[in-house]
Hints:
Elements: E1 5-6, H1 16-22, H2 32-49, E2 55-58, H3 62-73, E3 79-84, H4 87-98, E4 102-107, H5 116-125, E5 131-135, E6 137-138, E7 143-144, H6 147-155, E8 161-165, H7 177-180, E9 184-188, E10 200-204, H8 206-214, H9 225-232, H10 245-261, H11 263-283, E11 297-301, H12 308-318, E12 321-322, E13 324-325, E14 334-338, H13 345-361, H14 370-379
Parallel strand pairs: 1-12, 3-4, 3-5, 5-8, 8-9
Antiparallel strand pairs: 2-10, 6-7, 9-10, 11-14, 13-14
The protein binds pyridoxal-5'-phosphate.
Pyridoxal-5'-phosphate (PLP) binds near residues 10, 62 and 88.
Amino acid sequence: MIKQYLLSPGPTAVPERVMLRMAHPMIHHRTPQFSAIFAETKEMLEQLFQTRNDALILSSSGTGAMEAALINLCAPGDTIIYVNGGKFGERWGKIAETHGILTVELKVEWGSAVAVADVETALIANPHAKAVFVQASETATTTEHPIREIAALTATRDHCVTVVDAITALGVIDMPMDAWGLDVVISGSQKALMLPPGLAMIALSDKAWEMVGANKGCHSFYFDLVTERKNQQKGKDTTAWTPAASLIIGLNEVLKMMFEEGLDNLYARHSLLAEATRAGVQALGMKLVSNVPAASATGAFIPEAVDGVAFFKYLRDKMGVTFAGGQDHLSGKIIRIAHLGYYDVFDVVIALSAIEIALDRFGYPVVMGAGVAAAQKVLANRFAKV
Length: 386
Ligand SMILES: Cc1ncc(COP(=O)(O)O)c(C=O)c1O
């Protein structure tokens, strides 16, 4: 037997309590019983988004909500600005092009955050741009972008909004949607929300809803957010189409767990685990991929002498520990260690210990325990002194 550990930045491990809740017999989604769960779930979700507007639940992966944001806000021929600092930033451009939406790409070196001044320059050069699309946390490079500052730039412009992909940020970092003026925030189930893949969430500010109302270009039947809002609003408490009901029931349990922990504690836990992981990999001589590292996952360069693809597969197939590797030009060069969702102190120890053993097996001169020890010094802060 090889015990399996899922330490990738999505999908992430699902808590036992959530699995048990989802294992209950199926219920029909057009019933008062489901609507009561739906209403409670949506209300908690809005507290997590920190918005007084609707947080809509879509039955799709996160990309569905990214596409929904683009096509509900924009029509073919409109211009958008998007930050491309990795695989997921690049996706904004691909979706826009699919729908005939014109794009201004802000290409950022992988591992760096976009400079706010560059966003401002692009906004000045493109006064008709309808939105800036950006990741709160670019998972491909484990980098956080300055979403609050970007939102402040669009806040002063009529008919221009900031759209934030928070798929690996919501429930990881404190990003109060209304207080920071984030116009659209998107998330997905299989990350910090500790669920299997299959749900996306999206919330819009009043300004974004006004733009949706004025937009004549939405060419989607399924992802029509106006229809969704009509159905999901308080009092109706249902979805336009058949929802992924068992995942919504699971989400209800997840959100209860999050509020039992308390949002401040939730963010502090993620921050501590990230700090410990960074300390651990650096103690092993591994360089961080990002110069603005995310709290959701840590990307680190695999030593050059080690075959990165084989290293990653060895960890997964021989040791039972699944991390994420690199994408595109970083394939075989980096490892991404997740620390979001159902993840605590001793998961960091497992991650680093596995990496140390694998490095040793690949002939890299590693001092066993060096990474773990560096992490433990940080992790100990999670426990009170007696
Ligand atoms: C930041 C970010 N955006 C978008 C996506 C795409 O989401 P999905 O794979 O759920 O469609 C991911 C998934 O890894 C992500 O991490």
